[in-house]
Amino acid sequence: MAFDLDETLGVPIIDKGAMIGWQLRDGCAELLTQLESRFSLCLWSVSPRRYVDKALSFGLKRWFSASYSWDEKPARWKDIRTLDVDFLVDDSPHHREAATEFGIADAYILVPAYGSPEDFADPRKWVRMILTQLKMTDMQE
User: Fold this and answer.
1) Distance between CA atoms of 102 and 4, rounded to whole angstroms?
2) How far apart are CA 108 and CA 44, in angstroms?
3) Which residues on neighbouring strands pair with residue 67, listed in sequence order?
4) Regarding beta strands 88-90 and 2-3, do their DSSP bridges make them parallel or antiparallel, or are they unpaired?
5) What angle do CA 109, 101, 40 make, to 5 degrees?
6) Nearest-angstrom CA–CA distance, 50 and 57
7) What is the CATH number of domain 2-139?
8) What single string gives the DSSP state of each residue in 66-126?
């Protein structure tokens, strides 16, 4: 199972133009801990490798067996078949729309972007959306 980084798992904490930490969104740590018992988790970002590695260094690395940046996997869209994963959790509808043409759109779990009005109104909605699509409602709060 793959996860997007920015606005899906959280956002970088920036000071004077440098990343000094990572702000996980509500429920992220608990969700990743639950999922790692059932899935092999990987991180898949359109950001450069250096940025991904820096983000991982702030505690995210513990949940992911692999990570992929656009440096290694440049493409028009995140095609889950290229990583041989069953699902991608992302805040961008672009990848899910592209997957529709290949009949795999249901494998793309689209969540509200972290900090968006929808996220602000219900900060844990994204967790419920993922668990519902994975048919893991027994793990919901």
Assistant:
1) 20
2) 13
3) 43
4) parallel
5) 35
6) 11
7) 3.40.50.1000
8) EEE-TTTS--SS--GGGTT-S-EEES-HHHHHHHHTTT-GGGEEE-PPTTSHHHHH-TTHH
Average pLDDT over residues 57-67: 97
Phi-psi region of 17 (alpha: psi -120 to 50; beta: other; left: phi over 0): left
Domain spans, the chain: 2-139
With 90 as the cut, is the pLDDT of residue 138 above it?
A: no
Return the residue matching tokens 């969700």.
31
Q: Which two tokens stand for residue 3?
A: 């996860």
Does residue 8 carry a pLDDT above 90? yes
Mean pLDDT of the residues in the chain: 95
Cβ atoms of 115 and 109 within 8 Å: the answer is no
| Distance from C-alpha of 98 to C-alpha of 52, rounded to nearest angstrom | 24
Say which residues have a Cβ less than 8 Å from residue 32's Cβ, sequence separation at least 6: 3, 41, 63
Residue type, 79: D
CA-only gyration radius of the chain, Å: 14
Paired tokens of 23: 């702000």
